[in-house]
């Protein structure tokens, strides 16, 4: 069975939350006190995940005092929780315009830029944050993430080491460094970092998931499965763990379980094509061509340049006797990837020259 490996399911690194939230400072008059109240209320709402309420209160604070930079920083953090990164960047820009030395604004904007894959710009913001506050662990851990995304592994590891020096209890630095060690196949060091992260944050589904993937690489399949199970127990909505557990089920012949887990992964992240194509291949294996075609079609809708999805759908159409549709899909696959031998063979079998 072919399981898709060429699309990334999760980001390579774990970013620390937007930035250190900035409390308002008590003022001398009633208007400042009122503004501080809205900022503090917004902060509490961000921390408990009530971002809509936080946005309303922080916007009210800005209406009362439009030059309060910290209100923009914290509203930006709320926007980031909603994945509204461009809007968040506008608020960070405003905060920096109002107070160019406000270090958390640079950290937050750097993180937002990172989520938008603008790592070079984010790097400049992290450098500025470190210039302003050389002992800020969050600036180092996020710059390390930017280095990692840019393939500058040694510099990333150095920043994670600096983070740990500044704040030995920041679990994310161990997780991120563990991911780099895993990629470099430095498995003992990776295990040590994941174990330390779990010691510091024992309810992190992300860490158990990453350690499970490491155990898979080490061919400790049952131990990997245990970590994936733990990740799901800790967070029933952690989509990557369902995706990885589905692969484990399928490799071990538990096709119904795998299909169920891919279904849950799709429910949680319907915009990602990986689970659709993997489930489609399982449907093919079970002889459920109509279901597989539906999943291949959804994969193509989400990723129109995905040659393998056209090729596999062509094979499914062929099983159903849908010759013209099969030919069209093989031809589309070859348009996208001219060297695909299976598509050429498929056309030959249908009596059509590639």
Structural class: mainly alpha
* Oligomer classification: single chain
| C-alpha end-to-end distance | 26 Å
Helix amount, in percent? over 70%
- What spatial form do the alpha-carbon principal axes imply? globular
Spans of 5+ residues with little confidence (pLDDT < 50)?
A: 1-21, 25-33
Mean pLDDT rating: 90
Q: Rg from C-alpha positions?
A: 24 Å
Strand content: under 5%
Instruction: Please trace the helix and strand order, writing H or E for each element.
Output: HHHHHHHHHHHHHHHHHHH
Profile the largest sheet.
none
**What's the β-strand tally?**
0
Number of helices: 19
Would you kindly provide a written description of the structure presented here, covering whatever features stand out?
The protein starts with 29 loop residues before the first helix and ends in a 5-residue tail after the last helix. It has helices at residues 30-47, 51-64, 69-81, 85-98, 103-115, 119-132, 137-149, 153-166, 171-183, 187-200, 205-217, 221-234, 239-251, 255-268, 274-285, 289-302, 307-319, 323-336, 341-349. Helix 8 packs antiparallel against helix 9. 49% of the residues are buried. The chain is mostly helical and 354 residues long. The chain is built from 19 helices and no strands.
List its salient traits:
single chain, 354 residues, mainly alpha, 19 helices, 0% strand, disordered N terminus
Q: Summary?
A:
With 354 residues, this protein is mostly helical. Helices cover 72% and strands 0% of the residues. The longest helix has 18 residues.
């Amino acid at each position: 069975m072919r399981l898709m490996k060429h699309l990334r399911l999760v980001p390579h690194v774990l970013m620390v939350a937007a930035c250190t939230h900035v409390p308002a400072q008590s003022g001398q008059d009633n208007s400042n006190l009122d503004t501080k109240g809205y900022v503090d209320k917004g902060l509490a709402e961000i921390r408990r995940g009530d971002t809509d309420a936080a946005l309303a209160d922080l916007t009210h604070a800005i209406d009362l005092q439009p030059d309060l930079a910290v209100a923009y920083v914290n509203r930006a953090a709320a926007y980031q929780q909603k994945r509204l990164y461009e809007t968040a960047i506008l608020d960070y820009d405003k905060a920096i315009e109002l107070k160019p030395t406000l270090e958390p604004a640079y950290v937050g904007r750097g993180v937002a830029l990172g989520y938008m894959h603008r790592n070079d710009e984010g790097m400049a913001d992290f450098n500025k944050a470190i210039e302003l506050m050389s002992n800020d662990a969050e600036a180092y851990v996020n710059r390390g993430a930017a280095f990692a995304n840019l393939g500058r592994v040694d510099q990333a590891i150095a920043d994670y080491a600096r983070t740990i020096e500044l704040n030995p209890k920041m679990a994310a630095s161990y997780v991120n460094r563990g991911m780099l060690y895993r990629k470099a196949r430095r498995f003992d060091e990776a295990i040590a970092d994941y174990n330390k992260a779990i010691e510091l944050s024992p309810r992190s589904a992300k860490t158990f998931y990453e350690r499970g993937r490491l155990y898979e690489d080490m061919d400790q399949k049952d131990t990997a499965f245990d970590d994936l199970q733990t990740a799901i127990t800790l967070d029933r909505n952690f989509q990557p763990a369902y995706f990885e557990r589905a692969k484990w089920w399928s490799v071990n012949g538990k096709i119904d379980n795998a299909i169920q887990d891919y279904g849950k992964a799709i429910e949680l992240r319907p915009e990602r094509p990986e689970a659709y194509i993997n489930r489609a291949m399982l449907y093919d294996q079970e002889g459920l061509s109509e279901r597989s075609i539906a999943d291949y079609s959804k994969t193509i809708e989400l990723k129109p340049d995905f040659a393998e999805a056209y090729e596999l759908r062509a094979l499914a159409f062929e099983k159903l006797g849908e010759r013209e549709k099969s030919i069209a899909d093989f031809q589309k696959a070859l348009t996208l990837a001219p060297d695909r031998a299976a598509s050429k063979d498929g056309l030959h079998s249908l009596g059509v020259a590639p």
